[in-house]
Amino acid sequence: MTQQIKIMIVEDEAITAMYLNMRLKKLHYEVLKPIGSGENAIQIAKKERPNVILMDISLAGKLDGIQAAREIQSFCDAHFIFMSGYQDEDMRDQIRLIKSSSYLIKPIAIKDIIKIIERQVKELS
Fold first, then answer.
1. pTM of the shown model
2. How far apart are CA 58 and CA 119, in angstroms?
3. What's the pLDDT at 88?
4. Contact of 53 with 100, CB cutoff 8 Å
């Protein structure tokens, strides 16, 4: 059933991106090559149409994760799992405006990501 889910990782910290990529592939999810900027995330999302996007909030490039997600949600019905090392109420308010999103504080336990992904699997079934 996990083959139905295509995951895009948008994370500019290479070690974190590689870790997430490796763990999710071991669980047999289809995982796209990690992306480090919001601008590239928009381009790849247009082409690949992922079901789940793991989105860091602070990214390389001009766009942060929230700005990139706003653009992506205009053409792609993905669930966003936002990741941040900060607990900022203003940031949470901005995330709440993004339909179909979750918010996790770093360091992130892979089991928390998997719970959210599995919920998406049930919705797609």
1. 0.93
2. 26
3. 84
4. no
List, in sequence order, the alpha helices (H) in the chain.
14-26, 38-48, 65-73, 89-96, 110-124
Q: Scan for tokens 């290479």, then name that residue.
A: 14
Q: What is the pLDDT of residues 31-45, one digit of tens each?
A: 999 999 999 999 999
The residue among 64, 60, 69 whose CA lies nearest residue 36 is 60
Which residue reads 């995982």 in tokens? 31
**Cα distances (angstroms) measured from residue 81 to each of 35, 95, 110:** 15, 10, 12
Q: Which residues pair with 31 in a beta bridge?
A: 7
Q: How many CA atoms are closer than 13 Å to the CA of 55, on its beta-carbon side? A: 33
Is beta strand 6-10 parallel, antiparallel or unpaired with respect to 52-56? parallel
Angle at CA of residue 98, ends 124 and 27, nearest 5°: 40
Distance CA 46, CA 5 (A): 16
